[in-house]
Specification:
The protein is of the alpha+beta class and 761 residues long. The chain is built from 20 helices and 30 strands. The chain is globular and about 80 Å long. The structure holds ligand MTE, hypoxanthine and dioxothiomolybdenum(VI) ion (MOS). The site of hypoxanthine (HPA) has 12 residues, from α9.
Length: 761
């Protein structure tokens, strides 16, 4: 089945917040934000700005009627700065005017005096000064200290990965509309409608039921709108609350890049111990997460880093510690993979460094240590339905690892100006919110008297195709045409207390809730059919909109059956609740069974670098991916292709640069390079590993949203290998992204740069 949005998307008819027809009297809000990263606000003068014609009002923290507090996990973040700003881009005031242009002009006339305070941008420096978001956490299994003596090889080092701008095509924004009795309806581009509702209520000092949040779809979120869409929704709602007029607040691209948080950069120490036969005996890592100026989702992201620190390897003795470091950057936030990629980069870096020191291929260590059924993760969960080896073996069968490497070596032996690199990146990603309580969802299903169906859930469509999947669930359970089903907007008055659309778990959680609701209605329909057909209820089936008795077709069709139910005053609607069974986690012991299941995969990379320019091509990415049993192969393929390209972007070209003053220098698309059509891999092959293993996935169709981003890590190591093929002694820091500049520096790293014979001829 096609994505149900493909028609309106390709015709430009899909509606996003800024496309909605505005109501007469709508005002526009623009935030006035800090131009220093850490300072006391000595004075704020609004007079000149307020005098601009068309300015309705300028709000500061003094206008907040509830709490000036938007922190979700830890209450440590003000909506509008009171006496101190702690990141460049922190909102200080909100200018509301007749047009966005007027608001922008007025914002420029606001005068503020700062008294500068010391700025920290480096997480290790923050840790040294004990500036932490929360106490550090350690996950530990076995006893690493007892293992080191047994290790034949011990490798230590530092690995660093950079941040990443979400670059959703639709920037952050919201439209707040006043309703009667002081109620407010907010159209928000958010992954978390309930987060918007809850936090707006808190800031305005209203009960949650006075705030209704509605989401049609997002032009991308990628985690950037899990928590940080809330700010802009409250901005609009705050103005609406005071002015009783509709207010729109949409960020332009540069404001969005400057003011919102991104993927967390990490700097980490690792120590890896190997036996003589290359089994990993012990692994230790310390992660320094650059959280930015407030907690936002950093504690949860940090937790997932710890969960994924061993990637897909069986490491009985592991000890991993993570520090969430408070710096003066915009608070960093969820980004596809949610800390998992940052954790996995470190173990992969450790394996690569070990292989380099031993003069062997990293793939030997990787393959030897893959997880298998019955192994225990370092947080206590036992693997079941483990597909790590299956994916690797299948990839070898399909793509021939040995031959691929030999081709790369042969090419390198023949060519001096170009070198190829090869790498394998296997993945393992846990599915469920790491916070157990968030693994619940609800759905509301209406069957209308004409037999058409409306489905509401807590799922937010953001390009990942979840609405199509929800529609498929309803159509499958009822066995009716997909044309009879409509997926409604995501609205807090229809489905309440929702978890954000995140953790790749949306289709599972909301799909199961939809399934339960549909099954309840179906049960009543079957009961009615039995009465109408004078048959036994257990003999009734519905297939392709027709009722069957003991497998025999009857005259009773779906619309007739629905009508019969209605005439007999039986309910054609259902609200259902689903909570993932089996999962639990004890944070006092840092052990448990946090994930419903894991998703596995293996990717093979070949790349070519230009040894004069440092530029490169990703020749091919060949993947075997654990789908379970995909309920929509086209959507899942799209998720994998998109994830791979986004992962490659993070690992190879997207370079966020903050100067020492905490100012974002890569603040536009002219200075921040993202993958374009020319830089995507020349070939992407994706082979589904279809498995029948029973999982908690909806219809056994495993979650697919985030896992593929981690394949991108393979691009980093393939490029590194290509550089090494040219300059074997190059001492390349394990520091992502591998930009063309870094490739070039690696090619001509000092050990070789001045030896003329090493230069290409
Ligand atoms: N795909 C598209 N096109 N747009 C997005 O914003 N977000 C990703 C992933 N795929 C995203 C996407 C992230 S971060 C997550 S957590 C999942 O989709 C969320 O959706 P799911 O739970 O339905 O997989
Ligand atoms: N993944 C993604 N988003 C989240 C999570 C998680 O585990 N926990 C809270 N938000
Ligand atoms: Mo995704 S980072 O869990 O929104």
């Amino acid at each position: 089945m096609k994505n149900i949005d493909s028609r309106t998307h390709t015709r430009g008819e899909s509606v996003y917040v800024d496309d909605m027809p505005v109501i007469a009297g709508t005002l526009y809000a623009v935030a006035f934000d800090s131009v220093v990263a850490h300072a006391k606000i000595k004075s704020l003068d609004l007079t000149e700005a307020e005098a601009v014609t068309g300015v309705e009002r300028i709000f500061t923290y003094k206008d907040i009627t509830g709490e000036n507090q938007i922190g979700g996990i830890i209450p440590d973040e003000q909506l509008l700065a009171e006496s101190v700003v702690d990141f460049w881009g922190m909102p200080i005031a909100l200018v509301v005017a007749e047009s966005e242009e007027i608001a922008r002009v007025a914002a420029k006339k606001i005068k503020v005096e700062f008294e500068k305070l010391p700025v920290i941008v480096d997480p290790r420096e923050a840790a040294k000064q004990n500036k932490l978001i929360m106490p550090p956490r350690t996950f530990q299994n076995g006893d690493t200290s007892a293992q080191w003596a047994k290790c034949e090889h011990i490798i230590e080092g530092i690995a660093e990965s950079g941040g990443q701008e979400h670059l959703y095509i639709e920037t952050q924004g919201a439209y707040a509309v006043p309703l009667e009795n002081g109620n407010i309806k907010i159209y928000s581009s958010t992954q978390g409608p309930t987060a918007v509702q809850r936090t707006t209520a808190r800031v305005l000092g209203l009960p949650m039921h006075k705030i209704e949040v509605d989401v049609t779809r997002l032009g991308g979120g990628f985690g950037g709108k899990e928590d940080q869409a809330t700010t802009w929704a409250i901005m609009a709602a705050l103005a609406t609350h005071h002015l009783k007029r509709p207010v729109k607040c949409i960020l332009d691209r540069m404001a969005d890049m400057r003011m919102t948080g991104k993927r967390h950069p990490y700097s980490s120490d690792f120590k890896l111990g190997l036996s003589k036969d290359l089994k990993i005996l012990a692994f230790e890592a310390t992660f320094y997460q650059n959280a930015g100026a407030a907690a936002d989702l950093s504690p949860a992201v940090l937790e997932r880093t710890l969960f994924h620190a061993n990637n897909t390897y069986n490491i009985p003795d592991a000890k991993v510690t993570a520090y969430s470091c408070k710096t003066n950057l915009p608070p960093n936030t969820a980004f596809r993979g949610f800390g998992g990629p940052q954790g996995m980069f470190v173990i992969e870096a450790a394996i690569v460094k070990a292989a380099e020191e031993l003069g062997i291929e990293p793939t030997v260590i990787q393959e030897k240590n893959l997880l298998k059924d019955g192994d225990m993760f370092h947080y206590g969960q036992i693997t079941a339905g483990c597909m790590a080896k299956n994916c690797w073996t299948r990839a070898d069968e399909l793509y021939n690892i040995k031959k691929t490497r030999e081709e790369v070596d042969a090419f390198n032996a023949k060519n001096k100006l170009y070198k190829k690199g090869f790498a394998i990146m296997p993945i393992c990603f846990g599915i469920s919110f790491t916070k157990t309580l968030m693994n619940q969802a609800r759905a509301l299903v209406h069957v209308y008297t004409d037999g058409s169906v409306g489905v509401s859930t807590g799922a937010v469509e953001m390009g990942q195709g979840v609405n199509t999947k929800m529609l498929q669930v309803a159509a499958t359970i009822f066995s009716i045409s997909v044309n009879r089903v409509k997926v409604e907007t995501t609205n807090t008055t229809r489905v309440s207390n929702t978890s954000p659309t995140a953790a790749s778990a949306t289709a599972d959680l909301n799909g199961k809730a939809t399934q339960l609701a549909c099954e309840a209605i179906l049960g009543r329909l079957k009961k009615r059919a039995a009465i109408e057909l004078k048959a036994n209820e257990n003999d009734i089936t519905i297939k392709d909109e027709v009722v069957y008795v003991k497998g025999n077709k009857t005259e009773l069709t779906w619309p007739k059956l629905v009508t019969a139910c209605f005439i007999n005053r039986e309910s054609l609607a259902e609200h259902a609740h689903y909570a993932t069974p089996e999962i639990h986690f004890d944070t006092t012991k840092e052990r448990g069974h946090p994930f419903a299941y894991h998703v596995y995969g293996t990717s093979l990379y070949t790349v070519t670098i230009d040894c004069i320019r440092g530029t490169y091509d990703i020749d091919s990415v060949r993947v075997v991916h654990d789908y379970g049993k995909s309920m929509n192969a086209a959507i899942d393929r799209g998720q994998i292709e998109g994830g791979i390209v986004q992962g490659i972007g993070w690992m190879t070209m997207e370079e966020l640069i903050y100067n020492s003053e905490g100012r974002l220098m890569s603040n536009a698309l002219s200075t921040y390079k993202v993958p374009d059509i020319y830089s995507v891999p020349k070939e992407i092959l994706i082979h589904p590993l279809e498995t029948e293993v029973d999982s908690l996935a909806i219809f056994n169709s495993k979650a697919v949203g985030e896992p593929p981003i981690m394949y991108g890590i393979g691009a980093y190591f393939a490029l590194r290998n290509a550089v090494k093929a040219f300059n074997p002694s190059a001492n390349i820091p394990l520091n992502a992204p591998m930009t063309p500049e870094k490739v070039l520096m690696g090619l001509y790293e000092k050990s070789v740069a001045f030896k003329s014979e090493a230069l290409p001829v």
